[in-house]
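W.,

You were right to be curious about this one. When I first looked at the sequence I had no strong expectations either way, so I just let the prediction run and decided to look at it fresh. Below is the sequence, 1116 residues in total, followed by the output.
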Amino acid sequence: MSILNSVLKVFIGDKSKQDVKSILPIINKIKEFELSTSKLSNDQLREKTISFKIRIKDACYEDENLIVELQNEANDSNNIDRKEEIYQKIDELNDAVYQTTQNTLDKLLPEAFAVIKETAKRFVNNSEIKVKASAFDRELAGNREYVKLEGNQSIWSNSWDAAGKPITWDMIHYDVQLIGGVAMHQGKISEMQTGEGKTLVATLPVYLNALTGKGVHLVTVNDYLAKRDSAWMAPIFQFHGLSVDCIDYYKPNSAERKNAYNADITYGTNNEFGFDYLRDNMAHSTDDLVQKPHHYAIVDEIDSVLIDDARTPLIISGPVPQGDRHEFMELKPKIQDLVSIQRKYLTNVLADAKKNISNGDTKEGGFQLLRVFRGMPKNKALIKFLSEEGIKQLLQKTENFYMQDNNREMPKVDAELYYVIDEKNNQIELSDKGVDHLSGPDNPDFFIMPEMGIEISKIESKNLPKEEEVKLKEDLYKEFGIKSERIHTMNQLLKAYALFEKDIQYVVMDNKVMIVDEQTGRIMDGRRYSDGLHQAIEAKENVKIEAATQTFATVTLQNYFRMYRKLSGMTGTAVTEAGEFWEIYKLDVIEIPTNKPIARDDRDDLVYKTKREKYNAVIDEVTALSKANRPVLIGTTSVEISELLGKMLSIRKIPHNVLNAKLHKKEADIVAEAGKPGQVTIATNMAGRGTDIKLSDEVKNAGGLAIVGTERHDSRRVDRQLRGRAGRQGDPGSSQFYVSLEDNLMRLFGSERIAKMMDRMGLKEGEVIQHSMISKSIERAQKKVEENQFGVRKRLLEYDDVMNAQREVVYKRRYNALNGERLRVDLANMVYDTAEVITGSNKATNDYKNFEFELIRYFSMSSPFSKSEFENKSNQEITKLVYKNAFKQYESKMERNADLAFPVIKNVYENQKNKFKRIVVPFTDGNKTLQVITDLEKSYQTNGKQLVTDFEKNISLAIIDDAWKTHLRKMDELKQSVQLAVHEQKDPLLIYKFESFELFKDMIDQVNKDVISFLFKGEIPQETANTIQEAKIRRRDKVQTTKDTIPNMDERAAQSRAAGNTQREQAVETIVREQPKIGRNDRVTIKNIMSGETKTLKYKQALPVINNGEWVIVKS
């Protein structure tokens, strides 16, 4: 592939050079403006911003005026069809305004960038800048120390506080930074090396796009960076009258957070932007909305946000009834015992395997070795043994033999195991022997699921009284539910004990299990593993087990950021994922040249056979570097390794600091010391982003910062981040990675050629190989992992795209209901759709009687035509006539409600308006009563029409929210159950798309019917002024925000394994083996639980309806 790339470069040229070349003409224009801009006075420089805003406003004047006129017409019109046309035209005009704005910004870009660069220059060259005081200056002077008033003038200081750190402005944009700024304005990703000043680069496109007044969001990976950067860059923007704020300072849904979004420039973390979007779509009042339409976002460390976090959907959840009931603590001793027994057994088997292999019996020894590998692949003794000459080849040869013919011989290997671990796919499967052990001799049916078909047949054959039969069936279903949940709990506990290791995948802090990000090594606060796994780990670690919750709202970061009209980003490591950025986000990556050539010495990897040899070599190297007065940054992949190396350095009496997920609070202090002569810092990958290690001249003369990587990460980006800490702005430095054949990457995905080569060379303990070919082979292993992970993310996105299409429809309806502006159009469409459904279903069966019944049920009206007309007219004619009559009746009914309520409202307003601002008016459909809150003054001024609008709004929101929560639960269940489609060699995604469409269609139809039914039947009970009450402030539901973390390989495993992540089905399949195994083409008899109907068909055809729970197997 590299040869092909080299050939293409000869004929086509280098992409990065071509990208930069296309931007250079714009850079030359900026330079032309720099000369004229430098001659402006301070006041003239500030006036440029005002002139830019006027030019943008003038360009959009005609379209925006037309939007206002159309909006007024829509408000005055009662014609629903005309309103719909107007709103479509307004949407088209808004698109035209956006395009006009972008064209204008492109023209303004050279001069606007020159203005910002000149501003930065003046802040560097002047400790104070005097200008004529504006109203905005006077406002800032009250709460910002760097702005002071002196008569009619304001004095701007070039020193201020940036999130607790005093700074003096000392940065002016380089030419390469101008290139990065242009790329980001064009909606692309700027890849810039460490130390090239990405934070400063962002000021250019942020300023330019903030001129529109539509808002610019700058997204960071953590709240420290959001608060620091917003304070650090703010004066540059504020000097030009642009407001700056940071959402992470304020509580969700607060007035302060709303004000932060109303600022011209808003900083914040990716999580908070996403959660605010979800909260806005759970709001019950327009006053609760905080976000504006998504206009333009720049994502800092964009690969971390849009690649690493892509598998973690944002979830707002709430309590479920009896959510704290579980069996984790009860089952924990059983699982502990099971894991311990298997570990002891396999330790003896490994010893026997070593003995047999050393005696030349490779057949039996290989068989035993494979059994150990299947039962405890992460065992350190096993990993060490596999690094010996020829052992790994023997294991693979044995595994290939037993895997042939679709794993036909593998049960012989697994016969003595209690459970089998698939390390690559992060899965674990309990064996029959394991089930027997867990059940115990006293209660052999403890985990055995009842055969529903057989048990129901037994109950029915007893001819019991109806009540007793129903009770026995209910007890049977209850037992089925309890055992299903028990099996699910057991599986998750087994995973927690056998697959998840403390201080590697997670840490325990403050009596809580905290997930550690595998990419950055940082604590992922608020995130929980999905599907009860987190609760299982909590039980394992003896900390408080949190109660289960249900999803109220969810979105992936992928789909959240795709909502912005324009998206761009910046990072130091995006080019390795350029294909994914383009395929998913349509974002192009541009490599920006460095301001000074990189002087860092990047050496080829050093490869050892064992971890012990590798770590000893690392400590020897670090000791030598430290004595040479060079600061050393040791990169590790886990908390455990960082602590191990810390102990080894302590034995050598080498002073050092350790930075990992447990000590993240000391990060700023440790990083501040990391550049001192001879300082040794051990860090997980969390030292890779947002850390800037400054070096003194003494250190530079000694050779600069030395990077020592103790293991290659799964992703090349993370290794590049670590390397990027050295060689900043042309500084000297070096980077060296140490690798062993026992490392996870090498064990799972490493090239066998390396292992064979080391065997052939007969390397002894402590000897090392180093060659560019070896380094490239390791990079190929990393590419394999990256391809797998991209597949996981893409698959997750494909599922969420289905969800996202539905989410957009529901949230748009919700927004229209909340805003009230387009609600009447939506209601008209609901009436039409309901009329169409009623007509279609009854016309198909020619059932005029049911047609009449449904018209009365939903529209409270009789049929507008006779039975013969119903039979002779087409579906379309009937639908239009029903819609016309129904909507006419609805409008007259709403007028009557307004007329009925107005005397009461008038009485309260004229006599008690000082007592009430918002009032509660009850509406009832005869069954339910809804308390409608309305503004007293608006209802009085509109003669009661505002009350009717609020009635429509409240009903729509209540029914949509309830249906959406139920639908989310069904979609979660569907996503798990469709994985069974692999049995029939079908794509689960296609089934998911089809089934989810049907679910969504049913939900929308039901929402339409429920809303219409209540609105048509809704009446105001006869009330007097004395019964009117003041509306109380609505109490917020108790919800929690989390990022649901899916273990790395689960999605791919779900596509290839029977039952995927559907734990209940998976457990049934594993455990229930008392009956003979049923083949896919065997004929079985199934029975419908409700109707008693029986059918005989092939097992593969019966499987889908059995899994739905409607049918059960009677006999096979």
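Here's what jumped out at me. The longest strand covers residues 732-740. And, maybe more interesting for your project: The first helix runs from residue 2 to 12.

Coffee later to discuss?

I.
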